[in-house]
Sequence to fold (134 residues):
Amino acid sequence: MESHQTALWCLTGLSLLTFLASLILIPVVVARIPSDYFLHEQRPSLRWSGQHPVLRATILVAKNAGGILLVLLGLVMLVIPGQGLLTILVGITLLDFPGKFRLERWLISHPPLLRSINWLRSRVNKDPLIIQKS
Fold:
């Protein structure tokens, strides 16, 4: 243990940082999801899709980079303190890939996850997410 003391302190710091970041960022991102987002058959069009191509590409790259970061942090939080599964879900919602909307709808259909997200939304006075019953 003594020979790895620096690594342990670094892991402790990373654990604390990711835990605090998840406490701050996850509710913000979850609150921005429209309550009827999962009622659509296809993904709703994005507000910024009509913007200049350079701005649209910049936003797309930043959004995907943020999504990858959140998925990676969520994976780390599965073994250290933090909201790992919720962080992974939010990261996936930021990423763009084929079949993403279908995956999101499948994930959100699980009652424990939906309850957690709606609890977070209630804490910031947002309406609960509405999903179609299968």
The mean pLDDT is 82. Residues 29 and 129 are 13 Å apart (CA to CA). The helical segments are 5-31, 53-77, 84-94, 100-108, 111-123. The radius of gyration is 17 Å.
